[in-house]
Amino acid sequence: MTAPSRIRIGSAPDSWGVWFPDDPRQVPWERFLDEVARAGYEWIELGPYGYLPTDPVRLTEETARRGLKVSAGTVFTGLHQGPGVWEKTWAHVADNAALAQAMGADHLVVIPSFWRDDKTGAVLEDSVLTPAQWRDLTTQTERLGREVRERYGLRIVVHPHADTHIDSEKNVTRFLDATDPDLVQLCLDTGHYAYCGGDSVKLIETYGERIGYLHLKQVDPEILADVVARGTPFGPAVAQGVMCEPPGGVPALEPVLAAARALDVDLFAIVEQDMYPCPPDKPYPIAERTRRFLRSCGA
């Protein structure tokens, strides 16, 4: 008889309104670490590179004395642009991967580049990839998975994200079908997938062997309907409150967690409630209530 899978709950700087390495509207990193630990979380992600200390000795001291451990780093990539962007991409990836490795993490979350600016909403490129761009995206992502594993011992988990080319069920499944499961797994963000019309439980049940990591997030269906109707870019949609506190939105997280447990593998499930920008006193009470809610779901 196999042992039940273990879902390890964590949170991230994103849940404290942190999107950038340095921004006057964000809480200082010391406050984030203090509050995420006080809210009852044991695991964190690194967030944008440079927000937390990048010296692994110092970061280890700061996290250890708060009882925190690091589950993953995060990188943004534009791999659909082909081999020509590899060196620039790798320079960014290597810094993040080295710090994640030094902190004992096993994963690197890979987010595709936005086709429109997340602050201004300016359209940067076509929202639909050509067949050649799809080939570059899949082959370069496999290369990234191989290089990150060989050099840093980390698994990449690709994060479908609103306003990127890996977003809807159609594009997510196309991406999965075209990539090597041994090199490329998925970070399923329940909020982003719902934002783009996807069903997280269905994806877990259909592509369970590809799910390597979870981000737990919900969207407000009424605000989402307005965002979709108006074509609002992701950044302004977040400022409008499209990502909301569980259990007040969709998808319901109990069935998601149940489907994840049924995979019979160990998974990180990191809470992320996009709130940039937000008042400094807003995140902590939400984080504490969310942790309580997830415990009521058995997580």
From TrEMBL:
Please state every residue range assigned to the domain named Xylose isomerase-like TIM barrel. Answer: 33-296
Superkingdom classification of source: Bacteria
Question: Which residues does UniProt call coiled coil?
Answer: none
The record's annotation in Pfam families points to: AP_endonuc_2 (PF01261)
* Name the record gives this protein: Xylose isomerase-like TIM barrel domain-containing protein
**What is the organism field in this record?**
Streptomyces purpureus
